[in-house]
Amino acid sequence: MSTAELASSYAALILADDGLEVTADKLQTLIKAANVTEVEPIWTSLFAKALEGKDVKDLLSNVGSGGGAAASGPAAGGAPGGDAPEAAKEEEKEEDKEESDEDMGFGLFD
């Protein structure tokens, strides 16, 4: 990780810890106060845009949680007759047949 990325990350964490909004100007001010001279303004802009509207503390507390896993079950607008699970099973069977290496005439260790 470069010095610019580290400085921007630490400045964003400082702002979040103080409960302040993360903006490019505030990041630049903190980086200048820390006497880090090799940070181009593009880095602070990127970090500010990436963290815009996000709670940094919440991001840190959910680092190891795995994030947005797909929900299992029919979609909200699914068919009322229960056809969705059967259709999904049929699609899975078709995909398995297409992805099979047996019909190609060679194996992994041939």
Automatic annotation (TrEMBL):
This protein's GO CC annotations: cytosolic large ribosomal subunit
Record's keyword annotation contains Transmembrane helix: no
GO MF annotation: an example: ribonucleoprotein complex binding
Pfam families in the record: Ribosomal_60s (PF00428)
Gly residues composition-biased segments: 64-81
Region of interest: Disordered: 62-110
One GO BP: translational elongation
Protein keywords: Ribonucleoprotein, Ribosomal protein
Transmembrane segments: none
Comp. bias (Acidic residues): 92-104
Binding partners and assembly: P1 and P2 exist as dimers at the large ribosomal subunit.
Family: Belongs to the eukaryotic ribosomal protein P1/P2 family.
Function: Plays an important role in the elongation step of protein synthesis.
HAMAP family on file: Ribosomal_L12_arch
Protein's name in the database: Large ribosomal subunit protein P1
Organism: Pseudomassariella vexata
